[in-house]
Amino acid sequence: MKQYTLIFLFLSLLANAQVGIGTTTPAADLHVVGDVLVQTGFSVGTLNIVTPTEEDFKLITRVTNSLPVGEISDLDVSTLAVAPINTIDYHFTNVSLDNLSDVDLQYDASKYIIAVSNFRYVGDAIKKRTINGNRKQIGVFVVHAFVSGGTWHLEIRNRNLDLDVGDSLEYYVTLVVYDKSFYRHLTPITTDLNGNNTGTASSIPILY
After folding, report:
1. How far is residue 39's CA from residue 33's CA, in Å, rounded to a whole number?
2. What is the pLDDT of residue 5?
3. Strand 30-32 to strand 141-148: parallel, antiparallel, or no bridges (unpaired)?
4. Average pLDDT of the segment spanning 91-115
5. 68: cis peptide before it, omega within 30°?
6. Going by C-beta distance under 8 Å and a sequence separation of 6 or more, which residues neighbour residue 165?
7. What DSSP line would sit under the chain, residue for residue?
């Protein structure tokens, strides 16, 4: 009986002790000073919500291109010059008529993905034009980010109509800049809708 009691006490101490690897003074249940390698599965908890008092946190990731594979590293957003998702506001003034046809944003297309958000048009309206007798044309207005010459460019204009001479406008737009190193570009999916306006995508992307 005494032997079982000693074993029980020993196991209890292990269950409640802090374990240090590379340190003799662990400050957590498991405190590792040095690299961590996970060769097989890696289970983590969920982060359902972040309160204002919890914003200073790091993300843990398993690196699949390390040698050997499985190195664990942390992502500290506060030390990054560019975060995984970034936003920046642009304001364009003194535009020729309404034709902002090609602005080089100078973001390297091999490193970033650009999305357009919160577009605002401020100024004189582009007037409709009469074509073919009494038909009114409103033109084709586009807000378009595209890649040219290895960098992202921006087009904002009515491709068919212009402001009247003497009229003016300003464009406000927010760009969302995604760092490609945190994303995976999936294979494009083409779907033929056979002349219909509803349907189902031809395949499901592989997300794992």
Report:
1. 18
2. 44
3. unpaired
4. 94
5. yes
6. 97
7. -HHHHHHHHHHHHHHHS-EEES-SS-SSSEEE-S-EE--S-----------GGG-S--EEEEESSSSSS-EEEEE-GGG-SS-SEEEEEEEE-S-STT-EEEEEEEEETTTEEEEEEEEEEEESPPPPEEETTTEEE---EEEEEEEETTEEEEEEEESS--PPTT--EEEEEEEEEEEGGG--PPPP-----TT-S----SS-----
Provide the phi-psi class of 39: left if phi over 0, else alpha when psi is between -120 and 50, else beta.
Answer: alpha
Q: Using pLDDT thresholds of 50, 70 and 90, give the confidence band for residue 8.
A: very low
Could you tell me if 115 and 144 are in contact, meaning their C-beta atoms sit under 8 angstroms apart? no
Residue keyed to tokens 């001479």:
165
Angle (CA) 174-179-182 rounded to 5° is: 135
168 CB neighbour count, 10 Å cutoff:
13
pTM for the predicted model, two decimal places: 0.62
Q: Which two tokens stand for residue 149?
A: 């010459």
Q: Which amino acid is at 50?
A: V
Query: What tokens does 81 get?
Result: 């010059």
